[in-house]
Amino acid sequence: MRFVRYLRDGITRYGMIEGLEIVELRGGLFESKISFNGVRQPLAGTQLLPPIVPVTFYSGTSGGNYFTHRRSHESALQPATPAEQHISYRANSALAGHEASVVIPPDSSGKVQFEGELVVVIGRTCRNIEPENAMAYVFGYTIGNDISERVWQKSDPTFWRSKNADTFKPMGPWIDTSADIDKMTTCVRLNGREVSRFRTGEMVFDVPTTISRISRYITLVPGDVIWMGTDDPTLDMYPGDIVEIEITGLGVLRNSIVAGV
Amino acid sequence: MRFVRYLRDGITRYGMIEGLEIVELRGGLFESKISFNGVRQPLAGTQLLPPIVPVTFYSGTSGGNYFTHRRSHESALQPATPAEQHISYRANSALAGHEASVVIPPDSSGKVQFEGELVVVIGRTCRNIEPENAMAYVFGYTIGNDISERVWQKSDPTFWRSKNADTFKPMGPWIDTSADIDKMTTCVRLNGREVSRFRTGEMVFDVPTTISRISRYITLVPGDVIWMGTDDPTLDMYPGDIVEIEITGLGVLRNSIVAGV
Q1: Contact flag B93-A164 (C-beta cutoff 8 Å)
Q2: By the 8 A CB rule, do B240 and B157 touch?
Q3: A160 shares a domain with A66
Q4: ipTM entry
Q5: Does one domain contain both A4 and A95?
Q6: How distant is the Cα of B226 from the closest Cα of chain A, in angstroms?
Q7: Where does the record place the Fumarylacetoacetase-like C-terminal domain (chains A, B) (predicted)?
Q8: pLDDT tens digits, residue range B160-188?
Q9: Among A14, A30, A47, where does a domain finish?
Q10: What is the domain range of residue A21?
Q11: Given CA atoms B203, B209, B214, B219 in this order, what sign does their dihedral have?
């Protein structure tokens, strides 16, 4: 099943995709039983919002979660092979939907790059979960583009603006409740040309390990998202560019790059 | 005016304090006009929740926002006198209310400390605000206790567990819509004994500067909170301790320390 989030009459709605239509939900995504209110609308032409706004927005591994990416950003603080898994937080304020513009701040160096990522959406409250039980708490998956300003990132210990300026976290287009991570490929296209391709599942810390790690100290709740990191290459983007992230079975997250004023 | 958040019949409510009572609001805190639904209940005996759950939870200055505290935690990455202001994010999942227990995780070193902080609550959406206009976007103020596990903190570049384990961010008891920051004192008591006292307003980066700084890159929205940092000393706490943060005019945030199992 695929679930979207959008506005109708100025109110945020959740819907399920059925063929070419959105079938609107009566309540939220995490009711004990999903029900519908009878409203349908075409998927085409509906402006999709980020499919969820989490209570807490987690990023899987500080310093990267794929070996090639870790080696290319290696430093004393971020060894290529991490001894233990450190989690990060991202800002909900930075979320943007499918087809939204990514705005490069006017005082940016201009070195703004994509990072195509698998996003895990938590479906049930959990605390102190072992890896072998972790997948039972996953609601589904979506796609994230972890937009990063590389010059700022070097002097931004918390990544507060280098990775969290407005619109720097596109997420979508929808949440798909099923996925076979070992069979997935993440593919990034810039203006239609493939520029990055990697096996989605070849992570340093996989999804069950990450959920288990977080849950040892923190209660995960329905709607929380965990961005699982990217692999190299990550390339510069410029105003006018169109960036697409495709992950097998999860669709395509497409955003345009524009210059802020 | 003072506003609280609490549960009644299992539903989250907002209320205004009137004498010894809570007068319940019809909607949320940020309606264009506040209205009441006629329900009243005594303040005493009402279990208060954190007065707001923000969209994004900001911490004012990475490395500390008071000079004495910065000097005592000085490092190459965190100079005592910061050249520029770096913002951090904290996890909504870590929020706890007034009178809630702070739970020390079972594998903690035990070196868990308080940090008494002024918390700014944003009331109106703002972007690209100059410091001289920033205070118009403040809804009010509350108190935060930025609980920190000092041994973990040394090897936790994102502070993901050292400052964000469950219950490590008590906030409350209420939001007060008025404050004269220059005349405020922050006072911390451990088991009734005063252990820290500092002038709340003697910050490295003050409230208008911080709001302006964030808003240059990020849209602040109603309910967002900015924790403004603490000054030294910050001392160890142990299971059985009661920690109270009092800030002039904002009341007392009181929490007990318990050992996790």
Answers
A1: no
A2: no
A3: yes
A4: 0.94
A5: no
A6: 13
A7: 62-258
A8: 999 999 999 999 999 999 999 999 999 99
A9: A47
A10: 1-47
A11: positive
